[in-house]
Write a structure and sequence with these properties.
This protein is about 30% helix and about 25% strand. It has helices at about 20-40, 45-50, 75, 80-95, 180-190, 195-220, 225-245, 305-320, 325-330, 365-375, 440-445, 555-560, 570-575, 585-594; strands at about 1-5, 55-60, 65-70, 105, 120-125, 130-140, 170-175, 175-180, 250-260, 270-280, 285-290, 340-345, 395-400, 405-410, 450-455, 470-480, 480-490, 510, 520, 525-530, 535-540, 580, 585.
């Protein structure tokens, strides 16, 4: 199966002046940003309010993205055009359509959604009785009614039905009338329902605000001018991407990485799973082929929807590498950027599963796809990429406190590889995720959890002229009996080094039991009960090094030693730098490096 956006020729002359086009572009972007801030401020749960794991976007009547909220994560805003197109298809199959006053709820991973917990609320925008577009919000919800509490860490699910409630283009408001039965079903089938439904109400309100602002914008400039501006903006974005691709040498670029899978499984088909990417660059177009990627797992939820996860991982990575904002300035985030890029993944592989294969744990594999795309294109643009990234981890803590269930979702940082002239970024979300961490004060004031430490790892960064980014160490102590489930990756394979840099360091996970025992954990942990006093300790991965470590500035090596990130022995072994008494022994260093 191939995924490719609808194409509009970029060569047709603009029918609108560029100043008006730019003004309308700014207005669209500001509307999306306002939607995002309104959603953050109205939300109840920290995953939206603090981590900003949400999306907000405006889409035209054909389902093409016009603008998205700049402060939200790409994995939330990026799929919104796919959500809208999926809903349009489902409604057409039912003989139904969007009408004024409708609000549609949708989370079908086989019809555009990224995965089930990322629920979208879509409001159609009508002007003079004509459907001209949509305002939509998405958000990752704390619970979606699966077997295990929470909406992450669910690494055991036999099919899509085991992953929680499925909302396939459900009208929660029909021509302005609230469908109370649907909302009651949601409340009756999810944990922490006050938080989740409160967040959903916030999504509806934010989407309606976006729709109102879009109507005001169209009425200010007129529908014809508005539509001409939208076409011109997408054509402009397409030209930018084509010009960037045309600078690449034509050719075929390949790369392979692998994900952990289920390292503790006796089934070899479930662990050490390859992801293969072949990029074909020809003129101003790129074709991305994932042939060779492992077959789908029919009874484990690490499969990735092609539309909603894989396509966004590919598009976001190529856009970030080829259209660096430091060079090009603000880039219009619309569907024009994706026109020169086509994607193919064989049906039935991890990157294009067949329903009802489960997909709820697609987060880490999708980030590995993005990392593999970067590895593939790296030889063509060596100064525009990083070495291998340290992947992420998501954890769901849960329990019952004071007679009511509680759920908390924690996204653990990864790290970037070293870059041309710059070290890798430490302890951050990577590639298609850019959520923020939950403040410790917020965690401890609302939940029976205590964060005992939060620090960078030592002596594990990938060595290079630019060293790899460093992962964090975080430990959580249970203040009451409860449970945890974990979706992670990157404990079997180290992030790749580039241009002579060393590989980074894998992640680790352990439980320090209240009775004194310590247990090493695999990267994926199904629902596991914990006792009061048990401590979960997460060691984040470190990115790969970039360039020959012996080309690293001795002063930079000394700084890392003085900061406690590496010790003198590693400085000598990895970098050929002799540190003694808090300074570089320059004569010994020259001799060693020679």
């Amino acid at each position: 199966m191939s995924t490719a956006p609808r194409r509009t020729p970029a060569t047709k002359p603009d029918r609108i002046d560029p100043i008006t086009t730019s003004v309308i572009q700014g207005a669209l972007e500001n509307i999306a940003i306002e939607m995002g801030y309104k959603l953050m401020r109205m939300s109840y749960s920290s995953i939206i309010r603090e981590s900003e794991d949400f999306g907000a976007a405006l889409v035209d009547a054909e389902g093409r993205g016009l603008a998205e909220s700049a402060q939200s994560t790409p994995l939330q805003s990026g799929p919104i055009p796919g959500y809208v197109q999926g809903v349009q298809r489902i409604l057409a199959e039912r003989g139904d359509a969007f009408r004024p006053g409708d609000v549609v709820m949708h989370n079908d991973a086989y019809s555009g959604a990224s995965h089930g917990p990322d629920v979208a609320f879509i409001v159609p925008v009508f002007v003079q009785g004509k459907l001209i577009g949509f305002a939509a919000t998405t958000a990752h919800h704390l619970d979606i009614g699966a077997l295990s509490p929470g909406s992450c860490g669910i690494v055991e699910a036999i099919d899509a039905y085991a992953e929680g409630l499925q909302f396939k283009a459900i009208k929660v408001y029909d021509r302005g009338v609230r469908n109370d039965a649907v909302w009651q079903i949601v409340r009756d089938n999810i944990r922490a329902s006050d938080l989740v439904v409160g967040d959903m109400d916030a999504q509806v309100a934010a989407a309606r605000i976006g729709a109102e602002r879009m109507v005001e914008l169209v009425e200010r400039y007129g529908l014809e001018t508005f539509e001409q501006a939208c076409d011109a903006l997408m054509d402009h974005a397409e030209r930018l991407m084509r010009q960037a691709i045309a600078k690449l040498p034509d050719g075929i670029y390949r790369a392979e990485t692998a994900i952990d899978g289920y390292l503790d499984s006796p089934d070899p088909s479930l662990k050490e799973l390859p992801i293969e990417v072949t990029l074909t660059v020809k003129g101003s177009e790129i074709h991305v082929d994932l042939t060779g990627t492992a077959p789908q797992t029919p009874n484990k939820p690490i499969n990735m929807p092609l539309v909603g996860t894989v396509d966004c991982a590919v598009w976001l990575t190529l856009r970030s590498i080829l259209l660096d904002s430091d060079i090009y300035g603000p880039i219009p985030q619309n569907s024009g950027l994706t026109r020169p890029i086509t994607i193919y993944a064989p049906e039935g592989c991890l990157a294009n599963p067949i329903f009802p294969a489960p997909v709820i744990a697609r987060f880490c594999p999708g980030n590995a796809v993005a990392d593999t795309v970067m590895k593939a294109i790296a030889p063509a643009v060596p100064k525009q990429v990083s070495a291998g990234i340290g992947n992420l981890r998501v954890m769901a803590f849960s329990g019952v406190s004071k007679g009511a269930p509680w759920v908390h979702m924690e996204i653990m940082e990864g790290s970037y590889g070293g870059r041309h002239g710059k070290d890798g970024m430490d302890a951050v979300d990577t590639l298609y995720a850019n959520t923020r961490n939950n403040p410790i004060e917020d965690i401890e004031s609302h939940l029976p959890l205590r964060v005992l430490n939060y620090e960078l790892r030592e002596d594990v960064a990938g060595a290079g002229a630019s060293r790899g980014g460093i992962g964090s160490i975080r430990s959580f102590e249970m203040q009451e009996d409860g449970a945890v489930s974990i979706e992670g990756d990157g404990q079997r394979f180290a992030p790749w080094g580039f241009r002579g840099g060393s590989d980074g360091s894998p992640a680790r996970m352990e439980i320090a039991l209240a009775n004194g025992g310590v247990e090493e954990l695999p990267s994926k942990l199904p629902y596991r009960r914990l006792a009061k006093g048990d401590r979960l300790v997460a060691f984040g991965p470190c990115g790969g090094g970039y360039g020959d470590p012996r080309q690293r500035s001795p002063q930079a090596v000394l700084d890392d030693v003085l900061d406690g990130l590496i010790d003198a022995a590693r400085a000598r072994e990895d970098y050929g730098v002799v540190v003694a008494d808090g300074r570089v022994d320059e004569a010994a260093t020259r001799k060693l490096r020679a």
